[in-house]
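Exercise: predict the fold of this chain.
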Amino acid sequence: APPPPASDRLAGGDRYATAAAISAASRRPGVDRVYVGTGRQYPDALAAGPAAAASGGSVLLTAPTALPPSTAAELARLQPSEIVLAGGFASVSTDVAQALSRYGPVRRVAGGDRYSTAAAIARDAFDGPVPVLYLASGRNFPDALAGGAAAAAQGAPLLLTEPSRLPDATEQAIRALRPAHIVVLGGPTAITDGVLSTVASYAGSVTRVFGTNRFATSGEVSRWTFPGQTNVVYLATGLEFPDALAGGPAAGAHDSPLLLVRPDALPPAAAAELARLRPRHVVALGGTSAVSAATLAAAKAAAGH
């Protein structure tokens, strides 16, 4: 594992530079695989986080039609053996693919929608049987962000589902991956009991992990995944998705949770987890508009710093 980040905040001037900064603090040059997804939408890159962690790589973000300089610079540093485009041409254009080819061989993994794209990424990166598989709603991002970091730390894939129906591509991926255990992220409004019953037929056991809101759910995911102390805890805003997308593989690299916080306040669930985990390092992802200095200070105090 790489050493813990030297700084208590990893950030850049925008979402692309922040993702590059997170990667630079968690990965050494010469990685096997880097996933590149659009920074404009969340679904395609959700499954890419655990997949990147499984290969010891990073998730970097791009604009759909132009490669940001910060992403290009990080790819030049990482020298990946392979670059995987997460999503279709509307997410990452052929022009971006051509620009990426300067930094390594490029291939695209995508499906017809967010569910089949997540399934394709998971099946490409993981061979069944897998010990654990995480399942999150594809209609919103918070549960999948915390779950993606947990999946990354456990070497597990993450798939997406409709709230009240298991998509065919997701079902086929579960069958192929043959998980011993499935973790369903979020309460019955996020993923219904009917979907839970359906996936239960494909695994030895199923656990639903959720809290009263997105912040409490991230705390419960951390508590379920990390029973003991951890060296590092990452904080990301629960109101936006880009910083936590890139943070998932970093959390996996350090076997650490990612807790969702409010930009201007530390939620009680996050404070409780920090007090329980007592990490040596608390690292905010994104600038002060994403995680304020006061929120970071409160998190450190909760961790006993």
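Check your answer against the key: The chain has a mean pLDDT of 96.
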